[in-house]
Amino acid sequence: QLQLAESGGGLVQPEGSLRLSCAASGFKMEHYAIGWFRQAPGKGRERIACINTRGDSTKYADSLKGRFRISKDNAKNMVYLQMNNLKPEDTANYYCAASGDPFSALCSAASATMISEDQYDYWGQGTQVTVSS
Fold first, then answer.
1. 3-state SS assignment for residue 45
2. Are 23 and 4 within 8 A, CB to CB?
3. How far apart are CA 91 and CA 3, in angstroms?
């Protein structure tokens, strides 16, 4: 069974940091681009970042660039999202998703757009991040 599982969420104070993990089972991440998304209560799903199949190219939402960093370890079948200087508005449920190789090239700073939601094949259940003092 093909699955993604996020972990690492929790309660953190403003200006704090968290590292989220995304673990794949049933498939190899080296064949997929992986994206991180988030959804806050009452809001639509927001794209955060994606990383290509090899793990050597990334693209970020402009509003989050500099505070968030996506990384990938194909040997461990894991993707991470390092989040720094967290703000209350970062409170949301965070998801990872896997997209097939044809869209991997969009995970590049040179790309005009990121992989769209409907181009992702598999989704995790999410992990909650709450930023509050």
1. strand
2. yes
3. 24
